[in-house]
Inverse folding.
């Protein structure tokens, strides 16, 4: 799809890539001006670009961690304590955007959902649970308040979740958006069951009086 950029839009775009402090030209994703070193305000960029990564569905997690750690270091709020309010705000916004990009790309399910959005395939929530989810939900409703049974259910749900993640990534690689949507619905259902199972399990754990918090 070709996007037609009008003159005004183009003008805006140019202006937005100018350093607020020295008016030097900066890159779209630059966190700091390469002329004067001032921290820049956050600009619209996709999560991959923000982390300096190629836009690919499969992410090398070690590489992602390294990039994130390198990029966030200069944004440490301590470095901006004696700077102007503008700079403190810009650094804080940069950090929020960076963390959001990192967390989205690090989690395969969040990355998958984001990938669909990037391909303009908005996620449509299904009206009904997937049959596998329905089955697990029924099991959860029927399971007795028994720690061993709940642990087994959690374990099985977890295994199904892992399968679901594989299914999601495979569908996305094949650009089968419909199947990817379906996998996401399934994953949401599984995550919901898993968190309910954990909550119920936690509620059943007796508190040891010796380790109980005292006021
Ligand atoms: Zn500058």
């Amino acid at each position: 799809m070709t996007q037609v950029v009008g003159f005004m839009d183009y003008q805006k775009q140019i202006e937005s890539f100018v350093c607020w402090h020295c008016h030097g030209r900066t890159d779209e994703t630059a966190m700091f001006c390469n002329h004067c070193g001032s921290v820049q305000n956050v600009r619209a960029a996709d999560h991959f670009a923000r982390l300096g990564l190629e836009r690919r569905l499969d992410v090398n997690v070690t590489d992602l961690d390294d990039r994130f750690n390198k990029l966030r270091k200069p944004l440490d709020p301590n470095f901006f304590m004696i700077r102007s309010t503008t700079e403190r705000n810009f650094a804080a916004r940069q950090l929020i955007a960076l963390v959001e990009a990192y967390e989205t790309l690090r989690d395969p399910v969040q990355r998958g959902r984001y990938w669909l959005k990037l391909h303009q395939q908005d996620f449509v929530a299904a009206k009904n649970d997937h049959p596998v989810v329905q089955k697990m939900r029924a099991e959860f409703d029927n399971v007795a308040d028994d720690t061993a049974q709940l642990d087994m259910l959690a374990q099985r749900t977890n295994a199904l979740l892992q399968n679901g993640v594989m299914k999601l990534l495979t569908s996305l690689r094949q650009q089968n958006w419909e199947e990817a949507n379906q996998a996401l619905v399934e994953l949401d259902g599984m995550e919901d069951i898993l968190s309910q199972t954990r909550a119920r399990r936690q509620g059943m754990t007796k508190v040891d009086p010796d380790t109980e918090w005292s006021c």
